Amino acid sequence: MSLRSAAAHRNLLYLLSLRELRTRYKRSLLGWAWSLLNPLVQLGIFSVIFLYVFEQNPPVGDPSGLQSFALYFLVGFIPFNFFSISIGASIGAVQGGASLIKKVAFPHEHLVLSVIAAQFVTLMIELAVVVVALLIAGNMVLPWLPVVFLVLVLLAIFSTGVALLLAAGNAFFNDVSYLWTIASQLLFYSTPIIWNPETVGNPVLTQVASWGPTGAFVMALQELLYDLQMPSALRLLQLAVYAGVSFAFGAWAFNKLSPRFAEEL
After folding, report:
1. Residue 7's closest CA among 87, 88, 89, 113?
2. pLDDT digits (tens, 9 = 90+) for 188-222
3. Where are the domains of the chain?
């Protein structure tokens, strides 16, 4: 990816992102309310399973003392949902922009970046709702928000790298989108969103959660928003490495394959 070329076409990126936001819930009765409804429906389903079927106690925040499965779930689900939806929507971005690719010379990565940017706006809206809920529950999360934003930016960079790689691959092999459906489900259940690594009693699963990319980001946000403690320097370094490596490799792969998009599509 050429940063100079991307910067020169920043207005195009803005317009594509704006189009993505405007068309996402076009002709929908609930509109942007759908971005909040989906997490709430998932919360209702998993609350019944966690609290009533398996009769588990909600995790206790340390040192916050907060004990609420609803808030624990939302703190983890919302960033994971951003990652999952961003990748899922970005995979078809190159194919969806085939007509534009064949007619106009522009940085093809903008098709993917516009999806990530639009979804990041949705993430900020959902995060604002969760922050209000945490404040009502007694968790003073405001001092931690700058670090939360930093973690979310790293998550967006990491997601962009994965999205660029898979979008480029999907332009040649449609199997990528089907494989992602399976992979996203595996990532969801291996990420500590509906279970607590400290009480699961399986050291292998705990290590997978701690060192897996989605688990690392989710656990960092749980520490900040649910526990009210700063993630370790090692954790922040881990997130920075994941973001940097993912973006570098994804951008390299996309840049290598991009010249062949027009003939393939």
Report:
1. 113
2. 988 999 888 877 777 887 888 888 999 999 999 99
3. 13-20+68-264
